[in-house]
Amino acid sequence: MSEFPQLDLSADELLTTTRSVRKRLDLERPVPLEVITEALEVALQAPSGSNAQGWHWIVLTDPEKKRIAAEYYKKSYYAYAEAGAAARAANPPEDLETAEKVVSSATYLADVMHEVPALVIGALHVPGGALPEGNQAGVWGSLLPAAWSLSLALRERGLGSAWTTLHLTYEREVAEALGIPENIRQGVLLPVAYTKGTGFKPAKRAPLDTVLHVNGW
Ligand SMILES: Cc1cc2nc3c(=O)[nH]c(=O)nc-3n(C[C@H](O)[C@H](O)[C@H](O)COP(=O)(O)O)c2cc1C
User: Is the minimum distance from the CB of 80 to ligand 1 under 6 angstroms?
Assistant: First the structure.
């Protein structure tokens, strides 16, 4: 039983309308830690290899801690955006309009990341701290389903987030600043806020028949 109001969405509606929310994050409305922990309780029902549950969730609400993570994120974002702009100029994507919308939205997020009420880093215990050469899926599969469940559970409670990974360019620096041990590897950073309005539409995606392979490639 949720302590926080929930949207009246079917499972399919929830799955098809949980979007990357950036410009519609409400930076002014406080987010109680308890709504995040309630969504995390849901997320912990996700599968993990051998049921090891090696995940860890680092929730940043302190302005100074958020500033550190946001600063590394922004530095990485602007380097990435510059390379992306050059690549788009050389080779314009088919759907340039959507690509430009994503850039505008992502740039906005990079600029306000420190103002988002909570930043949640999903991380995973990796024995020895070094990622294996092969079978990366076998490692990250023990964190990412739970992180996506968290995004869904947040949306169900009227909060939005955007899946981000760019701070990982500076994973070690962020780990040191936040006291994260070496054998805990970070996989995702979710900026979390209530959304401005709760209506979101399914996104345009490449048609299924371009990616579906039945009984072989
Ligand atoms: C592995 C992964 C990494 C991503 N990294 C970032 C990121 O660092 N910053 C960001 O703004 N969005 C990031 N995104 C969000 C994508 O841009 C977004 O999912 C995509 O544009 C589709 O939009 P939608 O989520 O609204 O459907 C990432 C998504 C994934 C799955």
Answer: no
Ligand 1: which of 17, 18, 20, 152 to mutate, most ligand atoms within 8 Å of CB? 20
**Whether the CB of 24 sits within 6 Å of ligand 1:** no
Nearest to 2 by CA among 194, 153, 120, 190: 153
Place of tokens 């990616």: 211
Q: What is the dihedral of CA 107, 113, 116, 120, to 10 degrees?
A: 120
Tens-digit pLDDT profile for the chain (217 aa)? 799 999 999 999 999 999 999 999 999 999 999 999 999 999 999 999 999 999 999 999 999 999 999 999 999 999 999 999 999 899 999 888 889 999 999 999 999 999 999 999 999 999 999 999 999 999 999 999 999 999 999 999 999 999 999 999 999 999 999 999 999 999 999 999 999 999 999 999 999 999 999 999 9
Q: Is the CB of 106 under 6 A from ligand 1?
A: yes
Measured between alpha carbons, how far is residue 150 from residues 17, 67, 125 in Å? 14, 23, 18
Q: What's the gap between Cα 88 and its chain centre?
A: 24
